[in-house]
Amino acid sequence: MNGLNIISATIITIGDELLIGQTIDTNSAWMASALNKIGINIEKRIAIGDNWNQIWDCLEKENQTASIVLITGGLGPTSDDITKPLLCKFFNGKMIVDDAALANVKNIFENILKRPLLERNLKQAEVPDTCSVIQNERGTAPGMWFEKNNTIFVSMPGVPHEMKGMMSNYVIPALKKRFELKPIVHRTLLTAGIGESFLAEMLIDFEKNLPEHIKLAYLPNYGMVRLRLSANMQQSDEKTIDHEFEQLKAIVKDHIVADKDINIQEAISGIFIEKNLTLSIAESCTGGYISHLLTSIPGSSRFFLGGVVSYANEVKRDLLDVPQTLIETHGAVSIQTVEKMAEGVRKKTGSDISLATSGVMGPGGGSDEKPVGFVCVAMSTANKTISTTFQFRFDRTRNIELTAVQALNFMRKNME
Amino acid sequence: MNGLNIISATIITIGDELLIGQTIDTNSAWMASALNKIGINIEKRIAIGDNWNQIWDCLEKENQTASIVLITGGLGPTSDDITKPLLCKFFNGKMIVDDAALANVKNIFENILKRPLLERNLKQAEVPDTCSVIQNERGTAPGMWFEKNNTIFVSMPGVPHEMKGMMSNYVIPALKKRFELKPIVHRTLLTAGIGESFLAEMLIDFEKNLPEHIKLAYLPNYGMVRLRLSANMQQSDEKTIDHEFEQLKAIVKDHIVADKDINIQEAISGIFIEKNLTLSIAESCTGGYISHLLTSIPGSSRFFLGGVVSYANEVKRDLLDVPQTLIETHGAVSIQTVEKMAEGVRKKTGSDISLATSGVMGPGGGSDEKPVGFVCVAMSTANKTISTTFQFRFDRTRNIELTAVQALNFMRKNME
Asked: Looking at beta carbons, which residues of chain A come within 8 Å of B350?
């Protein structure tokens, strides 16, 4: 393998649960992002079931084309987990007990789980003698590193935090050592309030004049669009992509939320921390989701005080001081109610700024006047309380997500 | 194709964003689940980039083996979207304007977006003349149905709600009409409080005696394990799988949370609605996530009143009446504080039952006495307030999720 080529990898995830829709594959995205950062390009991701012939065929095919094959799943202690015996045969090995893996399994059962060790758990310490063992610091199943015909195969458990531990502590450093890698660099712009095709119209000339090795992608999500420039540092350099990124920013400047790859809640977090302001939230239709988005960010306690999930009208009245008569006159989903919710939660928590939501998320509860997807949002400060309405469509989950993102963006715009 | 064979499908998702980890693929799980329900088996899922040669190779390979190939993505109006011209060439067609698709695009711009129609949007109404057009009721890009050498290829947009609309209204009914399908039937048991390997020990004899055409899978998630029996109704019948399921339930009866494929929040929702009880929640460390899980369920307003996200200590004091001295003496993360939080939110909202959480989610904030992953949970009713502690590990996101699931399960067990 030539260290100067762009190194490509294939990700194979094994497990029936991935093929019947019971599990959403979040591992692949994490692995792709981690490999991308060190300059390894993911060419393909394949998900297959716990099926001997299919796994075998898949390994054979990838052995012909891929430099690196990362495999997750199928290493559990139960009989539907066939990956390890298959790899043993595929790489012409025989099973042996790995002492370090055995000590790890024993330690986990004796000192952490405090449960008796079963025969089937002991089996987790067995590995083919044709692999290098990757110890699992977060679980019982060891990882395995094989090589065959110039292809590296790494098998890891499908449990996300176990896989992530092995990748971070062992696989990524080992791949960096093995190949002469040049990272793929991205520059990402988060925009709001303008559709994908309108951005594309604004960027016709920009796209035409982009150097061939820099690629522009449009990534729409929740009514916002990310614009991403990508370049492999083998063909380009930081200065060139930074120059193009500045051009891009100048063209779409009126629509920029953030000039890095963050989401709206991270942008909000940055603004509040920088301005040393505090926030509280009163959520009716979003039912805690906005608070969850913000508190998912480490360190959010620096600006987020908390708030009230006022799902029932009585909670709006008793915890947020929204007058009963106002709810009766205008309805729980109204500009009047949501403004009082925002004022109530700000006063109760003593925050500098507050945000409030009330709407009809569906599938039930819609009317001609206030159909499913109708949402009222308000923000309040010591000086002003302002509000807006949105009309979304479709299903409940999407309406909750869209409301959260658009409410946060409404607040962001009105903080400037 | 023989209608009596088990029909298998491949899902291909196209888009660079899937290979650099910027997007988590939720479409595939939804499609797999929808196809599985009508008896179509997913053999493989492949994700590839916006790369002409790779897409072409992939289509050629699948044309040799798959009966059905479902393709999503790459149909947008921007220049990185190459799927449509590629399909046109692959299926030897030429581009023509589809009148119905054109009317749809015009309608969306004129009446819904109220924006001027651009040339590039008009192009979305063009399709190869070798396909049957699938109209898009939720967006501008039409779907396309091709057939070649006994393989059906369906191309759909990658936007989840657009794809779902096409699948539900057109693709699924058309596949049901075309093939003589027998559904794959699953029976799922949700268990808690026992590990995968201990369940497997209990089920050794059961597994040995299972009819060959019924498969048992162990699906661990968030400290709970789902046990799933699967059978294709061509080789089995409902009576046989129901019989085996009853046996399974009898063996693991002490660990059952639910005897259907629901999650813990749906189980909680069912219990509250059946018992006609109301719930409120005070969340510190989970920051709104438990409320979000519950309010994601349509109709949750029948039992969920709301609550308080008491992230700051002042909010615990001012909105939940937790005495300041108690927080100072025992700390915000303590049995004493979390019990007062539960009592406070129950009294303030007037709910029958309440649940409260406080813990150290990480990465910062841990101490020797209360390390990252240490969590206190309490529930309160008119008669009693009880609490427990957990020690989780690892990262913030996982700690928040584990706390939510285990707190709900703690409440469920203590409601019996």
From this structure: 314, 318
**Residue numbers in A near B294 (CB within 8 A):** 287
A366 touches chain B (CB under 8 A): no
pLDDT tens figures, A197-227:
889 899 999 999 999 889 888 887 777 899 9
Are B86 and B128 in contact by the 8 Å Cβ rule? The answer is no
| CA dist., res. B281 & res. B278, Å (int) | 11
pTM equals 0.81
Per the listing, tokens 């479409």 go with B27
Instruction: Please give the Cα distance from A269 to A262 (Å, whole number).
Output: 11
Q: Which CATH class is domain B185-258?
A: alpha beta
pLDDT tens per residue across span A353-397: 999 999 999 988 899 999 999 999 999 999 999 999 999 876 798
Q: Note whether A78 contacts B: Cβ–Cβ < 8 A.
A: yes
Q: Could you give the maximum distance between any two Cα atoms of chain A, in Å?
A: 78
Q: What region, left, alpha or beta, does residue A184 occupy, with left being phi > 0 and alpha being psi -120 to 50 degrees?
A: beta
Determine whether the interchain pair A120/B230 forms a contact, defined as Cβ–Cβ distance below 8 Å: no
Between 3.40.47.10, 3.40.50.10240, 3.30.70.2860, 3.30.9.30, what CATH number should domain A184-258 receive? 3.30.70.2860
Q: How many CA atoms lie within 13 A of A370 on its CB side?
A: 17
The answer, yes or no, to whether residue B359 has pLDDT greater than 70, is yes
Domain B264-413 has CATH 3.90.950.20: yes
| Optimal mutation site among B292, B302, B355, B394, interface A, most CBs of chain A within 10 A | B292
Q: Is it the case that residue A21 has pLDDT exceeding 80?
A: no
Residues of chain A with Cβ-Cβ distance to B396 below 8 Å are 296, 298
Which sign, positive or negative, has the C-alpha torsion B254, B255, B261, B262?
Answer: positive
Q: How far apart are CA A130 and CA A160, in angstroms?
A: 25
| Per-residue pLDDT at B7 | 84
CATH number, span B8-178: 3.40.980.10
Q: Where are the alpha helices (DSSP H) in A210-353?
A: 238-251, 264-275, 289-295, 313-320, 324-330, 335-349
pLDDT tens-digit profile of B247-262? 999 999 999 999 998 9
Q: Any idea where the domains of chain B sit in the sequence?
A: 8-178, 185-258, 264-413
* Chain A closest-CA separation from residue B254 CA (Å): 18
pLDDT digits (tens, 9 = 90+) for A225-235: 999 998 888 78
Q: What is the pLDDT of residues A109-132, one digit of tens each?
A: 887 777 788 888 888 899 999 999
Provide DSSP, B167-194.
IIIIIHHHHHHHS----EEEEEEEEESS
- Cα distance from B150 to chain A (closest Cα, Å)? 21
Average pLDDT over residues A169-185: 90
Task: Tell me whether residues B196 and A283 touch, CB distance under 8 A.
Answer: no
| Residue that has been written with the tokens 């020990």 in this structure | B201
Rounded Cα distance between B48 and B216, Å, is 31
Chain A residues whose CB is inside 8 A of the B348 CB are 318-319
Q: Is the ipTM of this complex over 0.85?
A: no
Q: Indicate if the pLDDT at residue A4 is higher than 50.
A: no
